Amino acid sequence: MIYRILPVLILLGVAACNTVEGAGQDLSAAGTAITQEARQAQ
């Protein structure tokens, strides 16, 4: 039983890590764009 559940849990863990990493990259890109716009506005 555990041998059937373990791969699914590992897969979910990897997917969650990729989702969080992707969200972090998106926020970083948004922050960079805001910083550039602020510099141009000065």
SSE inventory with pairings:
Blueprint: H1 2-41
Short synopsis of the structure:
This protein has 42 residues and is mainly alpha-helical.
| Largest sheet data | none
Which term fits the overall shape?
rod-shaped
**Run of helices and strands:** H
Q: Low-confidence spans: pLDDT under 50, at least 5 residues?
A: none
Structural class: mainly alpha
Radius of gyration: 18 Å
Distance between the termini: 63 Å
Count of runs of 4 or more consecutive helical residues = 1
**Total DSSP E strands:** 0
Helix content: over 70%
Can you give a write-up of this model?
With 42 residues, the chain is mainly alpha-helical. The protein is built from one helix and no strands. The mean pLDDT is 84.
Task: Write a concise keyword list for the protein shown above.
1 helix; rod-shaped; 42 residues; mainly alpha
